[in-house]
Amino acid sequence: MAGLLLFLAPLGCQARPKIFIQSSEHIEVLYYSPAHEYLVTHLIRSYENALNFERNLFHFTPSRKVSVLIEDFGDFGHGAAGTVPSNFISVGIAPFSYTYETLPANERMTWIMNHESIHVVMGDNANDLDRRFRSLFFGKVAPTDQDPVSMVYSSLTSPRHYSTRWYHEGIAAFMETWMSGGLGRAMGGYDEMVFRSMVRDEAYIYDVVGLEAEGTAADFQTGANSYLYGTRFMTWLAYTFGPDKLLAWVTRGEKTRRYFGARFAQVYGMGMETAWQKWIADERRWQESNLQDIRKYPLTAVERLSGRALGSVSRAYYDSRQNVIYAGTRYPGHLANIAAIHLDTGKIEELKDVKGPGLYYVTSLAWDPQARKLYYTSDNNDWRDLNVYDVETHHSRRLLRDIPTGDLAFDSRDRSLWGVRHNNGLSSLVEIAAPYQEFKGLHDFEYGTDLFDIDVSPDGLYLTGSVSDLSGKQKLVRFAIDKLRQGDASFEVLYDFQYNTPGNFVYSPDGRYLCGSSYRTGVSNLFRYDFETKKMDVISNAETGLFRPLPLADGSLIAFEYTSQGFIPVRVPTKALEDVSAVKYLGAALLSKYPELRSWKLTTPASINSESLLTRAGAYDPLHEVQLISAYPIVQGYKSTAAAGMRAEFADRLRLAGINVDAGFSPDPNLPAIERAHASFDAHLWDWKFSGAYNYADFYDLFGPTKVSRKGEQVKLGHSQFLIYDMPRTLSLEWNVGGYFDLDRLPEYQNVSATVRNLMEASASLKYSNLSRAQGAVDDEKGSEWGVYGRMYYANGGFPRLWANYDRGFLLPSNSSFWLRTSAGKSFGDFTSPFASFYFGAFGNNYIDHAAISRYREYYSFPGVAIDAISARSFGKVLGEYNLPPLRFRRFGTTWAYVNWTRLTVFSSGLFTNLSSPAIRGYYANLGTQLDFRVVLFTYLNTTISGGYARAIDQNGHTSGEYMVSLRIL
Amino acid sequence: MSTTTVRRLRFPMLIGGGIIAAGVLVYFANGHINSQKTQGAIGQRDVYRDGEVKAADVAATPGAAPVAMKAILESKEFQSLAKNPAFSSLMNNGAFLNLATNTNFVNLLSNSQFASLMRNSAFISLAQNNALSLAAATSQNSSQNSTASLTQNSQIQALANNSAFTSLLHNSNFTSLASNSAFNNLVASNALQSLMTNSAFTNLASQSSFQNAMLSGSVANLVLQAGEGSGGPATPHH
Question: Which one, A275, A280, A531, A942, has least CB within 10 Å?
C-alpha cells in the first residue's frame, strides 16, 4: 500500500487526474478515466457475488470496504490485492496475455475478482483475538521501517497476511479455478507441463523454503513459481486429504493457530515440510504415469538446435541468408534480448537488449526479410513502444512510443505491420504502414472478445489469429485484409478449439498450411491446418510440450521444446500422426474424487440486483477522504536517551493524501527539560510533502554511532515530480524549502556543531536513472544514473553548494557487476563557517538501520575514517566497485525466517579535497569490502545483515581502519 | 462335401462370410475398443469447463460515463468555464463537436506548442487562409524542400524560426489535421483562440477524464447539462 503513489507514477507526468468513485455495501471502485466506467457495475457485482460465496465457505466478514482501483497502465491485464492496512485491489483492465495458455481466456473482470477476493479473505479474515488487537490499534497496522515495532503490531492484527507468497497465490489460484467453473490454474495445461517436465528432466523441485528463497528469483519463471507450486500443493492436499481439510487450514477461525504453518500442523497432524515432501514424491509418481501414457505411442524425435535452454522465448523467424533464427529470449544471468540462434553451431548471439520484457512472451517480434529488419516491442509490461533493429548494421531505434500495441505481424506485400492494440480494456486490430510513424485502427472488438497471435499470409491477402470470447472459448480465424481495410471485420472460422488456446499459428512459406500448438491432448502438441483439405492434423507427440512452430521453405519445421530450464529450439519432423495419448490432469482427478467442487462455481454476477447496489457515485477527493488508519505505541531514540510515545497514521484509500504523526517523551533526567518532549509529522498530497519536528527523535538513534535526532524545531515543504517516466528510465525533479530553529548540530552532520541557532535551507535536485538487472540479480547490474544537486543554507549569510554524481555499471557473468561511481562538488560562502563545508567519513550504516545497505556508494561516505572526519570546500571522488556473483540459498532456515542470498562486494575509492587551494589540498584513498546476507522474516519483512571493513590512507601516509556491522530492517 | 455342392453353395457362403466379417468389424470398431482410441487415436484432455458467459451477464458496453460526466460538470474548473462565453460558443460549434471525437485533435488541445502558436498571428493567418496543410506538407518533404516551401509563403516564412512551429510540423496529431478545413476554421475562430489562453480550459483539456468525455461524444451535452444546474450532490448511477 505504501507504494501506491509509485503505482500511480505513470500519471505523474500528466496533469493531476480527477478520480471518480462508485461504491456498494462492501466495495468501492475508484477510476481515473470515464472510459473505464463501463466496467464498474460489472466489477461491483462480481465482487459482491464472490463475497456471498466466501462468506459461506470461509465464514468471512470484511473488516472494511474493499477499495478497487481500475487502471490501464499496462498492455496486459493483471490484478493485485493487499489487506494491510486496508483492503485494496488493483485491476489492470487490459486483455490478458494467453501465451502458452498460462491463463484461461474467460471473462476476466469476474475472474480477477474471484482470484483477488480470495487474497482479501486470506489476509483480512480474523478471529476474536485478531479483532481485539485491531480495535486496540484502531485498525490493521502497516509495518513501517520508521517505527519497526509496527511489525509486531502488524502481525498481531493481520496474522495470516504474514504467510508465504506461494500460500497466498496457491489458494487464490486453486479457488479461482472452481469459482470459475474449471477455468484456472488448478485445471491448466501449462501447470501440468511444468511439473511433468521437471520429473522427465529429473530437475530439482524446490522444497517449501527454497521455493521462496531461490526459486522465485533464480529460475526463469521467477515469481510465477509461487503460483505454480502453490496451486499444485493446494490441489494435492485437496486430492489427498479432501477439500474440507484444506478449507480448515486456510480459514482463520476461533482456536486456530495464528501462523499458517502452525495451523497446517494443527489440521494435518504433520509439519508442512513433511507434507511438501510427500507431495513431491506423489507428484513424481503422477507425472511418471503421465509420461508412460505419452510413451504408449512413438514420441516425436526432435533434434535440439542449441546447447542451452533460452528461458522464455518470443515468436521466432528464420533468416535463410545467415541460417539463424531470431527470437526474443529471457533467461537467468542475462538481460532479456533479441538473439540470433545459429543453426549450424547452436551459438546464441545476443543482438539487442529488450527494455521491459514480458515474462513469457518476452517481446512481440516481426521480421522484414527484404529490408533485413526486426520490429519489436519494448516496455512490454507498460505501454509498449515499437522499435526497429537492423540485423546488418546492428542499429536500433524507437519508431513509436507508448502505442499499446503488440502481437506484430509483417505484411510482405506492402511492408506494413499489423498488430493488436489494447486500450481501455478492449482489443483493436491496427495497421502500421511503412515508415511506421503512425498506426491506424481498423476494428475494435467488443469487450471480452480478444484477438491474439496474428499472422499475415505470404501473399498478403489474409490475416489469421486466435479469437477468444467471454466464455473462454477460442477459435482459429481468418480475415480478408482488403475487407478489413474497407471496415469489414467479419472472419472465417478455420477451427474451433473450444476451451483450448490455438497458440501461435503461423503460415508456411508456401501459404498452404498454418502451424501452431494446442493442449487439446493435454500436452501442448503441434498442429497443422491444411487450407486445401481444411483439415487439422496433429504432427507431434511430445513428452513435455512443443510451441511456436516455424515452418521452413524446405518443408521442415523448427519449434521450441519446453524443458525444466525453459525453451530449447528443436527441429521437428512434419508428419501427420494418428496416435497420440491424452494425459491426466491432477485437477480433473481431484474433481472426479470430490465432485462437490462443481458446486463451488459461482452464479452469474448478473444475479446481484443492480437496482439497489450503489450507495455512492461521484468524484473522489483524496483530501476529503483522509481517515485514521491505525495508532500504536512506539519507542524512539533521542541523542543518547530513549523515548516512548505514540504514532498515528491517517490516509485516504489511495494514499494520495495522508499524514503520520509521532509524539514521544524522554524520561531521562539528564536531558534538559526543554529537550524531553518530541513530536514530528510528515504529510503528503499528491507530489507535495510537508513535514516538521520538535526535538526530532528517531528509532534508529537507539542503536549505533549514527544519530539523526536533532534539538530544536524544523519544518520543510517539498515537491517532487517525474519529468520522464519511462521505466526503468526516469528523470525526476525535487525541491525543498525549510527552516531549522534552536539547533545545536548541523542538520546533515551530527558531529559538527552549529554556530548559529537558526538556519534556513533551500535545495533542489535533478536525478536521472536508467538501471537494469538480469534475472537472478540482487541489485542493479547495468546502466547509468546521474544527479545534479544544489543547496543553500542561510544563516547570517548565504552558503550555497553544488554537487553532482555520475554512476555507470557493467553487467558481468553470473549476475556480477562492476560499477564506476564519480562525484564532485563545491561550496561557497564564508569558509570559516561549518555551513560552508562538505563532510566525509565512515560507512554510515548504523547497527540497526533502515537506509540503503550499500551506503559506501554515497558521495559523503568514506569508509576507513570516522564520521564527518574529512571536511572540504570542494571535492572530487571516484569509486570502483565489484559486486561478486550472489550466492542464493536453497535451504537455509524455515518458512518464517530464511536466508535468501549473500553477496560480497569489494570497493576502493579516491577522494580529492579543496582542489582550488593548494595549501589545504588533500588526498585520501581507501580499500574496503562488505558482505551482505538477506534474511526474510514472515515473507514480507526483508532484513539485511551486513558486515564490512575498510582501511583508508591520506596524503601523509596516515592510515586508519573501520569495521561496520549493521542490521537493516525492511 | 462334393465339389458340385461347394460350387452351388459358394455364393451364399461368401455372402455369409462377408456379413460375418462385417459384423466382427463393426463389433470391434464400436464395442470393444476403449473410448480413448475411438477419438481417432488422438486423445483429448479430460478437463472440467463450465464457463459459459453471456454478454447480458456482463453488460459492459464502452461509451457513456454518466457518473464521471456528472462529477466533471460539478467540478470547480468546469463551473468556471461554463460561465465563459467563449466556451459556450465552442460547445455550440459543430466543427468543434465533430473534431472533439478525433484523438489527434484532443491530443493537440493539451499540446503546449499548439497552445503557444494559438497566440501567434502568423499561425492564425495560416489557418484563416486554410494553409495549415501547406505548412504540414513541408514536414513530409526533405529538409531542403521544406526550406524552399517555407519561403514561398509569408506567414510560413514568419514562422520558420519558431521552434514551437517546427516542432509541431513533426507532430503526427497536427499533420493529420492540417488539411482538415474544419480544423483550420476552428483555429481561426476567436472562441478557440480565447480558450487556448485560458488556463482553466487548458488544464481541463489535459485531463484524461475530459479527453475521454470528448472522445466518447459526451462533451456535446456538457454545456446543456451545466446550464440545467449541477450543484446538487452526486446520485447513484444504476
Answer: A942
Contacts of A730 (CB under 8 A, 6+ apart): A722, A724, A767, A768, A769, A770
Write the pLDDT tens digit of every residue in B29-39: 444 434 333 34
| Chain A neighbors of B48, CB-CB under 8 A | 181-182, 187, 587-588, 591, 598
Q: Which chain B residues are closer than 8 Å to A501 by Cβ?
A: none
b/e sequence A408-447, b meaning 16+ C-beta within 10 Å: bbbbeeebbbbbbbbbbbbbbbbbbeeebebbeebbbbeb
pLDDT range class, residue B228, cuts 50, 70, 90: very low
Does B44 contact A581 at a Cβ distance shorter than 8 Å? no
Q: A963 near A948, Cβ under 8 Å?
A: yes
Q: Find which of B37, B49, B222 to mutate to test the A interface (most A CBs within 10 Å of its CB).
A: B49
Residue of B nearest to A30 (CA): B68
Nearest to A471 among B36, B53, B72 (CB): B53
Span A539-577, pLDDT tens digits: 999 999 999 999 999 999 999 999 999 999 999 999 999
The pLDDT tens digits of the residues spanning A880-918 come to: 999 999 999 988 888 888 999 999 999 999 999 998 888
Give the CA count within 13 Å in the CB-facing half-sphere of A439.
Answer: 23
Interface confidence (ipTM) of the complex: 0.87
Closest CA to A72 of A94, A41, A40, A95: A94
Cα-based distances in Å from A272 to A207, A216, A225, A241, A312:
10, 19, 18, 14, 31
Contacts of B66 in chain A (CB under 8 A): 37
- Cα–Cα distance measured from residue A54 to residue A50, given in angstroms and rounded to the nearest whole number: 6
> In A461-513, where does DSSP find H-type helix?
481-485
Query: Which residue is closest to A580 within chain B, CA to CA?
Result: B42
Chain B residues with CB under 8 Å of A14 CB are 206, 208
Q: Which residue in chain B has the smallest CA separation from A522?
A: B45
